[in-house]
Amino acid sequence: MKTYYEPFMGGGALFFYLAAFNSFERAVLSDYNKELVDCYRVVRDFHDELTKKLRDHMRLDWNTPTYFKEMRSQHPDDLDPIDRAARTIYLNKTCFNGLYRVNKKGNFNVPFGKYGNPLLFQEGNLRACSYALNHYAALTVGDFTVSIDDAGEGDVVYFDPPYVPLNPTSNFASYTADKFGLNDQTRLSIAFKNIVNRGGLAILSNSDTEIVRDLYAGFEIHVVQATRSINSQGDSRGNVGELIVVGRPA
User: In CATH, what class is 37-122?
Assistant: First the structure.
């Protein structure tokens, strides 16, 4: 591929996998979550300093509810970029199920995970992530539509948005303080079609629901089983059906 676009970067799993095989010439990575993108920028630009800061956490009694609540209560805007990135990684590794969720005020509100011996970070993995981001990626913050404006022939766009709820009575998940609702899912389907019309390859992951099937009717749809451990109801965890939608240029 020429340029790989991932406008809902999240954990960036697909980007890092493809980068390991030199699968693209360059990448444009984006997310609406500014704290997340800032963390990736620190991983890219200040790997050594971030490693030291994470080690500093581990010299303290860090895997406790008291320390977790102290870190959670800090506001990202009050911290310098390296401290902010270390806090993001710390909370991700010690909170319940690694879930990222904020309230209406934008404050992180996931409870302590109660893990016996969580792995806060792997130095070799962090270094590899830093290399991949330096070598390939431009990082941006904003709505998904902004980062994909230039995507066209020879490019690949992978959309991994907040999923449509399986339960029709559920609220759309609040990954940021601004919810990603049905209107956004509709905007996303239009952006998907525009990519294909411009000669790009578009791929999307979402839940296996009537809403998603209707929005992407006419495109290639694959059903896959994915393991999901994040659910307030224990009997709703496990393998669930998801859709992979593929839009190929003519």
Answer: mainly alpha
Neighbouring CB atoms inside 10 A of 69's CB total 11
3-32+142-247: CATH topology: Rossmann fold (3.40.50)
pLDDT tens sequence across 21-30: 999 999 999 9
Per the CB < 8 A criterion, the answer to whether 59 and 35 are in contact is no
- For the chain, where do the domains classified as CATH 1.10.1020.10 start and end? 37-122
Residues of the chain with CATH 3.40.50.150: 3-32+142-247
Q: Is 140 left (phi over 0), alpha (psi -120 to 50) or beta?
A: beta
Determine the Cα–Cα distance for residues 35 and 79; give it in Å rounded to an integer. Answer: 11
In terms of C-beta density within 10 A (0-12 exposed, 13-18 middle, 19 or more buried), how is residue 5 classed?
A: buried
Residue 242's beta-bridge partner residues? 207, 224
The structure tokens 């240029």 sit at 249
Tell me: the pLDDT tens digits for 92-150? 999 999 988 888 888 899 999 999 999 999 999 999 999 999 999 999 999 999 999 99
